[in-house]
Amino acid sequence: MCGIVGYVGKRDCSKVLIESLSKLEYRGYDSAGIAVFEDGEIKTCKARGELANLVSKLNNEGGIKGNCGIGHTRWATHGEPSDINSHPHGNANVTIVHNGIIENYKSIKTRLEGKGYVFQSQTDTETVAKLLDYYYKGDPVEAIRKTESKIEGSYALGIIFRDFPDTVFALRKDSPLIVAVGEDEAFIASDVPAILRYTKDYYLLEVGELATLKDGKVSFTNLDGEPIEKTMLTANWDEEAAEKGGYEHYMLKEIHEQPTAIRTTITPRITDGMPNLEECGITEDMLRNYKNIFVVACGTAMHAGLVGKYVIEKIGRIPVTVDVASEFRYRHPIITKEDLVVLVSQSGETADTKEALRLAKKKGAATLAIVNVKGSSIAREADHVIYTHAGPEIAVASTKAYMVQLAVMYLFAFELAHAKGTLSEEECKRLTAELCEIPKAIESVLSQKDNCQYVASQLVNSENLLYIGRGLDYALSMEGSLKLKEISYIHSESYAAGELKHGTISLVTELMPVIAVATQRELFDKTVSNVKEVKARGAKTYLVTHSYIRVDDDVADYTIGVPTVDDLLMPMLAVVPLQLIAYYTSVLRGNNVDKPRNLAKSVTVE
Ligand code: F6R
């Protein structure tokens, strides 16, 4: 999704804006642009495609020299990716960058056209720029206030006015924006990695607040101009944590960071060998009383919910429904005050998940967010939040965030089951101790990357692929399949192994490799029968199972073994080869692993 940056200080503003935008590339974008004051005039440069295109255009045009400006990476929603549709938008008087969607832009546009305004782009954003221009009569805050009262939808806005050549204004609603301060300099950005090179100190801008960046300082007011005191936060990530750290891609780095991410996430939530989520406001008393649990999320985060469902239902004996957030919102779900709705999100800004949270709150259900980004909208709006401590996840394809979402799901399930009396203290301690051993076991899986590279080399020319599994292995296969398709662009589907013969097996030929996951020992023989069925129809088969298990050649062409832990916890180990297979297949196909086509890291529109 779009990224916003802004700068006021003494440095070369164009350089700062480009550098900061490069740290937001992970959000996904298709064009970029900056607007900087040069000799009191707003100079704009924008280009379709990668940031490098913007940089060469800037160089060809002699650059823009100044110390105050705004920048943007755009992920097209209204109008195709093009130079004209790229941000910033505006005219010589007022220019803006925008993240989000203006829902009522058509009616504003018609009104402004009636007043003589001519629009150049197809974007919703340009209507905001023109509306600001319309209301501006010498007082920028007044123009912003009037504009804000007329626009509907979601937005984070960076605004500059020609009459104020050393000032950046910023406000937001439903799209994230931070305001950072360094020594005699100030920044705005959509996310923390953008500013880490310059400072770690930042504020979270809230709805209804206006930030004014001037003379290297920042002040906050409400839209009536009354001052607001805010608490400064300090990022605990350094720039290096947001860089590749020697790995070829962020995705590979993040896969290798999983053991550390799990340790950081679970260690503070274990007391005397028992899960303890009290620091997140979750007590055993609360957990005992819920009638139903809904897990609502999108994509990979939803897949973490599917694993959670199996685990919670198995040991906690409480019904769990997992919903795709975009469906949940509109399916009139039956939720009551006695239910708990769990929202899972790496970014904490996913539009559908956020709206699902609001719906759950409206219905009176208790809400719990499992979120990675501190201070994100979902984290702030939910009744309770368990932060996953994965650190910044830059690759679009989620790996370590999924892993820590699983870790939190397990801790939550153990504590809930113990609270309900369906899991003895002894069993709870045993499972918690096994969870603590997972990071070490993952390290040993990571050391087998050659096996995954080999499987990738076998899959690289495939056009279609099937993943199969039963129970937890099925939930996990869904994540393996998503990972492969999103970065390798090979079409793949995940099926419950027992469901194949009800239709899908007709697709199976020698051109359809099958990856089977069989870590659930009570279901092992049944899954193996299904693997034999596809093998008998010509499919090449790859099996992920416990490393001590040996299978005959009539089952698997190639087996990847992972260490044995309690079957309940096996998804945390079995997902790693699936992540690596997806990664290496994408690399072998020459794809842009970290920024797959058409995808954005944070989906802040519906
Ligand atoms: C896939 C992936 C997406 C996200 C989904 C939800 O690798 O990353 O499917 O999981 O867009 O995003 P968050 O977790 O930020 O709500």
Name the features:
single chain; 606 residues; alpha/beta; Glutamine Phosphoribosylpyrophosphate, subunit 1, domain 1; Rossmann fold; 3 domains; 8-stranded antiparallel beta sheet; 18 helices; binds fructose -6-phosphate
What this model shows, in words?
By secondary structure, this protein is an alpha/beta fold. It has three domains: 3-240, Glutamine Phosphoribosylpyrophosphate, subunit 1, domain 1 (4-Layer Sandwich); 250-442, Glucose-6-phosphate isomerase like protein, domain 1 (Rossmann fold, 3-Layer(aba) Sandwich); 449-588, Rossmann fold (3-Layer(aba) Sandwich). Helix content is 36%, strand content 23%. It is built from 18 helices and 26 strands. The strands form five sheets. The chain has an eight-stranded antiparallel sheet with strand order 3-2-4-1-10-9-11-14, with helices on one face. Strands 5-6-7-8-12-13 form a six-stranded antiparallel sheet. A five-stranded parallel sheet has the order 18-17-19-20-21, sandwiched between helices. Strand 17, helix 9 (299-316) and strand 18 form a beta-alpha-beta unit. The longest helix is centred in the C-terminal third of the chain and has 22 residues, at 425-446. The chain is globular, with a radius of gyration of 25 Å. The chain starts with a strand and ends in an 18-residue tail after the last helix. The model has no long low-confidence stretch (mean pLDDT 94). Bound molecules: fructose -6-phosphate. Fructose -6-phosphate (F6R) binds at residues 298-301, 345-347, 350, 353, 397-398, 486, 602-603.
